[in-house]
Amino acid sequence: MVTPPWRGDAGPRVTALLAPNPGPMTLDGTNTWVLGDARSDEVVVVDPGPLDEAHLQAVLDHAAGLGARVALTLLTHHHADHTEAAQRWAAITGAPVRGAGRGEPLRDGEQLEVGGVRLTVLATPGHTSDSVSFHLPDDDVLLTGDMVLGRGTSVVTHPDGDVGAYLDSLDRMAGLGVAVIAPGHGPVVDDPAALLAYYRDHRLERLRQVQAALDDGAADAGDEDAVVEAVVQRVYADVPRDVWPAARQTVKAQLAYLRATP
């Protein structure tokens, strides 16, 4: 199967600049999203990404090319591949930074309007406890951070992430019925309904596989780390080993969910 090409826009007012941090967990790299209307002299930047001066300059140059200044920076969650540059970015732009424990806390349901673009903040925990998404109703776009990726599936970190919250957040996203998902990594998603349904089905299937592995003897492998390793070897045998560290995190979160679910 051919990997779909990464492309850097989710609409005329929603553009991504790709950070130079590709890897097994970051795919092509982190998408730094720039939101703004051509008729405005302000833009919003979502997730400035890693501390890479050339990348930050590219984002500044893009804003300047629009005849705009950065008026606000938003963070989808606290992981460093999205936030490492936040302090430097704030110093360069003078713009306030909000989210992931920085600046004024984002509130679920809060509505913002900057650069002619309306955004609604949605608390979508699961990947991390502080994960938020941004709904752009006029553009029919949802920025999802790492809750939903443009390729593959996301990780439920442990102990910060939560499988139950993840499933609830997927349902909340699906209820919006948006036309496009602008993810934190990977290409734009043009069929969000299908992808969100797949994400939910995939997670439920993984839970069934983990339970089956436990029933088949993984539960008796030894201490918690040994149990996790036994589950990973059975359930994620077809997954490249360079993402097994992430698989271990997700298995820990899945075990916690199964133990807490009657």
Automatic annotation (TrEMBL):
It holds the Pfam family Lactamase_B. Coiled coil: none annotated. It comes from the Bacteria. SMART domains: Lactamase_B (SM00849). InterPro entries: LACTB2_WH, Metallo-B-lactamas, RibonucZ/Hydroxyglut_hydro, Sec-metab_biosynth-thioest, WH-like_DNA-bd_sf. Keywords: Hydrolase. Residues 29-185 form the Metallo-beta-lactamase domain. This is Glyoxylase-like metal-dependent hydrolase (Beta-lactamase superfamily II).
